[in-house]
Amino acid sequence: MNQPLAGYAPAPVTARMENHGSHMLKVAMQTGNDLLARVGSMVAYEGFIQYEPNPPAVRQIARDWITAEGAPLMKCSGDGLLYLADYGADVVVINLGGDAISVNATNLLAFDANLQWGVERVKGLAKFAGQGLWNTKISGQGWVALTSRGKPIVVDCGSGEDETYVDPDALVAWSPNLKVKGKRSFKAQSLIGRGSGEAYQMAFSGQGIVVVQPSEDSTDRLRIRG
C-alpha cells in the first residue's frame, strides 16, 4: 500500500463493534449474529453480507415511529466486515453488558439484533421542538452504536435532588432509570430578535448518565434516508 494511505488501512478485529476513526463504525459480522442498522448507513463491506430493509419484526415493534421521531432500520446478516456511518457524525460504541439505555432514535446507528428493544413514550414531559415523545429503549447483552454531532460529553447525574438540564436537540441518550421532566425558561436570544423568548430543557434526576452532543441543530438529523 502507498505509504501516504497506510495509516487509513483497517486495523485487526478486536471486538464485535469498534470505531475506525471517530466517524465510522466497523462491525465483525458472523452468521447467526445479526445486526439492526439505520437504513442507508452502509458505506462498505467485505465478505458475504445480506440486507433486509424494515423486516416484519422491526415494523411491529416500531409501529410508533409514525413521525420524524424514528429511523427506519435494516437487518444485516452474514459473514465479513461491515462499515457504517451517518453523514460524518461521530460514532460512539457501547457494550451494554446487561444494562439498558434510552436513545433518541435519530442518534441510533446500529445494535445487535439479539438485544431487547422497544419504542416507548418519554414520561414526564410534553413534546418539545426537535424532540419527540418517543425514545428507543435497548437492553441486554450486546453492542450498540450511537451517533453524535461532534464529540459528546457523558454527564453523571449522581444521586439526590440535584437535576441535570439538557437542550432536547442536544440529547443523545440517557439511563432509562432516570426521572425526566420538562422545563420552560426565558431564552436570552429573544433580546436580539430571535425566537419566541422561551427555551425548553429536559431535566434528569436520579442515578445514571446522560449523553449530550455539542449541537442543537437537528435539521440534518431528520433528513429522510434512502
UniProtKB/TrEMBL annotation:
Pfam families: AIM24. InterPro entries: AIM24, AIM24_sf, Trp_RNA-bd_attenuator-like_dom. This is AIM24 family protein. It comes from Streptomyces carpinensis.
